[in-house]
Amino acid sequence: MLIRFLFYGLLGWIMEIVFTGITSLLQGDWRLPGSTFLWMLPIYGMGVFAERVHDGIRRWPWMLRGVIWLAFFWTVEYASGWLLQALTGVCPWDYSASPYSFHGFIRLDMAPDWFAAGLLFEKAHDWLDRILVRLNSVR
User: Fold this and answer.
1) Distance between CA atoms of 87 and 42, rounded to whole angstroms?
2) Taking a C-beta distance cutoff of 8 angstroms, is the pair 103, 78 a contact?
3) Cα distance between residue 15 and residue 50, in whole Å
4) Can you give the residue ranges of every domain in the chain?
5) Are the C-beta atoms of residues 69 and 113 closer than 8 Å to each other?
6) Fewest Cβ atoms closer than 10 Å to its Cβ: which of 24, 46, 84, 100?
7) Cα(79)–Cα(37) distance, integer angstroms
């Protein structure tokens, strides 16, 4: 479980850094600065618990699965943002300046991003399962 936790945590970090770097480019910054927060490693790492969701919905139509992932990720993003703010006094990502923000914890305009991230998560989960099965068979 620790390997899976670290896999999802690091994958989330990488995806976030690439996403913010591309966003920088779209805003005209050719340096492509990408960033994330240290808090995100354990938050993304909790993707290990989403594997069961994926196993339960894998045969459903992709559009429905994407909507489920969107709702799942928004729930996690909102809850973790709220919890971090309650514990530390600040949420590392503060979307409150966006007109599409919901309490500063999630942004409604990022729905397509989370929809796609959920479908990519499914591919990562299946890939990780194949790799770990191979590694275990070598032992």
Assistant:
1) 15
2) yes
3) 17
4) 2-138
5) no
6) 100
7) 16
Residue type at 120? L
Largest CA distance in the chain: 53
Cα-Cα end-to-end distance for the chain: 18
Joined together, the tokens standing for residue 119 give: 């479908």
Residue 108 tokens read as: 């409604």
Cβ(10)–Cβ(43) below 8 Å: no
Structure-block tokens of residue 139 = 């032992």
- Three-state DSSP class for residue 94: coil
Amino acid at position 44, single letter: Y
Buried-exposed string 71-83: b where 16+ CB fall within 10 A, e elsewhere: ebbbebbbebbee
pLDDT per position as a tens digit, 100-128: 999 999 999 999 999 999 999 999 999 99
